[in-house]
Amino acid sequence: MSAIRIAALTDTPAIRSALSDLLVETVAHGGSVSFMHPLPAEVADRFWRSSLAAAERGERIVLGAFDGDELVATVTLQLDLPPNQPHRAEIAKMMTRLSHRHRGVATALMRAAETLAREHGRTLLVLDTASDGGASELYERLGFQLTGIIPDYAFKPHGGLTGTKIYWKRVAATI
After folding, report:
1. Which of 29, 58, 65, 81 is 20 to 30 A from 87, alpha carbon to alpha carbon?
2. Residues 102-122: tens digit of each pLDDT
3. Are 23 and 33 in contact (CB under 8 A)?
4. To which H or E segment does residue 139 belong?
5. CB-based contact 71:15 (threshold 8 Å)
């Protein structure tokens, strides 16, 4: 594996296609990222078109991790929150290609997201992950604190309910 490069993503057909492929792969392998299996490519494309448009408006930052020219992972930093929450951001849609898991790619993406959160004046990050097969261990290694577990929160991509774990982390001094 060559050095991983992290970059904010913009909407191009190639980027949207790579993100869609990653989303379809993630869902097909049980990743609980709001979609059910089988996930049609056009549904994935529609999701990323909307997400990247929100990024263009400054409402979020969609980060990508590249191994050479290949997009191998993504995470989204959601910045557009209610007026009483200007100090926080949410982490969403953390996905890593199967071929690149357990190589530090997700850690690099999360660290980049934390840096961007601080640069945007955010002091608190929150996220959730599935109780079954989620990325709890990654988030806990990165210092996120478990708030609690909500049982039967969502359907898993292949059916059956799973709970969700809610996490938080201070990334800068409070306002």
Report:
1. 65
2. 999 999 999 999 999 999 999
3. yes
4. helix 136-141
5. yes
